[in-house]
Write a structure and sequence with these properties.
single chain; 147 residues; alpha+beta; five-stranded antiparallel sheet; two-stranded antiparallel sheet; elongated
């Protein structure tokens, strides 16, 4: 069921992808995207922190889900003591964290509520971290480029 929810989110474009030049998009009173080619240092730092939070969530879920060699992984909510003890940092200022699990899988997003273009960082139990904006006509999914 979680996979269907994630697929639905991606299909609606809520998290899916970025246009080739997101800073070229403008909204309302000519406000530019915060995370495009003209990204300011403060917004770059917030974006990088969101990616670090995403990677820490993946590490914590991976460690918490380890079981015997013949047992399937079992993922847990972020408030579970096995996750909380891993010291996941808070979402950066302006980012909203959403986390979903059905114990067999998980998915989460960190959406920048300050960005009028809808920038988000997202991942799931496969451990790949993505960054993007809602889909446009020339959409493509790009992996986050922060080590």
């Amino acid at each position: 069921m979680l996979k269907m929810v994630v697929a639905g989110i991606l299909l609606t474009g809520a998290l899916a992808a970025s246009s080739p030049d997101p800073s070229a998009q403008t909204f309302g009173s000519n406000q530019r995207c915060l995370h495009g080619s003209e990204e300011q240092a403060v917004d770059r730092a917030r974006r990088e922190q969101a990616v670090r939070v995403a990677r820490q969530i993946n590490r914590a879920e991976n460690m918490a889900s380890l079981r015997g060699p013949s047992q399937p992984r079992s993922y847990v909510p972020l408030d579970d003591p096995r996750i909380a003890s891993n010291g996941i940092p808070a979402a950066p200022d302006g980012f909203k964290l959403r986390f979903y699990t059905d114990t067999e899988s998980y998915a989460f997003s960190l959406k920048d509520a300050r960005d009028r273009c809808g920038f988000a960082v997202f991942s799931d139990q496969d451990g790949r971290v993505y960054a993007g904006q809602p889909m446009s006509a020339n959409a493509q999914v790009l992996p986050a480029d922060i080590p």
